[in-house]
Amino acid sequence: MSIQTKYSDLNTELTLCESSESPLTIRAVTLALSKQVHKITECRLSFQVSPELYQRIDTEALFNLKPEIRTPLSGGSFQLSRDIQIEAILDFDLLPQLAKNAKTSNQAAAYLQKLSKEQPNHPLLSPYSWYGLQVKQQQEKGETGYSTVWAYLKPADIRQDGIDSKKLNDAMFDFAKEWANHHQSASNEDVISQTVEMMTQNFEEVMNNVSENTEKLVSETLEEILTAFEEMAESLAEITDEVTSEASVFAQISQFFQQEDWQYEQISQKSILRLAFQGRNGKWDCFAKAREEQQQFIFYSICPVNAPQDKRLAVAEFITRANCGMMIGNFELDFNDGEISYKTSIDVEGDRLSNALIQRLVYANVTMMDEYLPGILSVIYGNVSPEDAIAQIET
Question: Whose CA is closest to 37, among 130, 119, 99?
Answer without folding.
Answer: 99
